[in-house]
Specification:
Blueprint (H helix, E strand, L loop, with lengths): L4 E3 L5 E6 L5 E8 L6 E3 L3 E4 L7 E4 L5 E6 L5 E8 L4 H5 L14 E3 L3 E4 L7 E4 L5 E6 L5 E8 L6 E3 L3 E4 L8
Length: 174
């Protein structure tokens, strides 16, 4: 299977893979002056122990969210966050002005379970509204979707319930 890739905020590649130790890792390009323009940074350990490869998607703020199946067969995720004190977190991140003098500082959340009992690696996609859907084949071989939802105040993100999409499906390659 191909490792999932993202084109980040500066249209540079990010790759996510499961290592020999079953942990997840990320490597990304960084801009450098011409003529080279980009270079690959060192591998970053995201931790965990997983039974599948990763799925990744960018949220509306251009931050990555990573998903994989844990040894308990549940879907686990980790996401990037703007840290307190960065001007992006104070300005509402989505509307942080490009070209502002201070770049936002980003850190990773802890791993959290989204539940389910999966039989294949997840897939993740950003919807037109900027929120993310996670798709997975369940232990019953049916396809399920878990949507990211926006709170009533329009600020807090959470996850909706797993919903049946269809099936059974023979395979679910992402």
């Amino acid at each position: 299977a191909r490792p999932p890739s993202l084109a980040g905020a500066q249209h540079l590649m990010e790759l996510y893979v499961r290592g020999k130790d079953d942990g997840l890792y990320r490597v990304r390009q960084a801009p450098v002056p011409p003529p080279q323009r980009t270079k690959w940074q060192r591998w970053e350990a995201l931790g965990g122990a997983f039974a599948s490869g990763a799925a990744a998607a960018l949220n509306a703020d251009g931050l990555a969210q990573v998903f994989a199946i844990g040894p308990d067969r549940a879907v686990w995720h980790r996401r990037q966050l703007f840290t307190a004190g960065s001007n992006a977190s104070e300005a509402g991140s989505r509307w942080w002005p490009r070209g502002a003098p201070v770049r936002p500082v980003v850190e990773w959340s802890r791993w959290g379970s989204l539940g389910a009992e999966a039989s294949a690696a997840p897939a993740a996609v950003q919807r037109a509204d900027g929120l993310i859907d996670v798709l997975v084949r369940g232990a019953d071989r049916n396809l399920y979707r878990k949507p990211q939802v926006l709170g009533a105040a329009g600020t807090n993100l959470s996850w909706g319930a797993w919903a049946f999409v269809g099936g059974p499906v023979r395979s679910f390659e992402c």
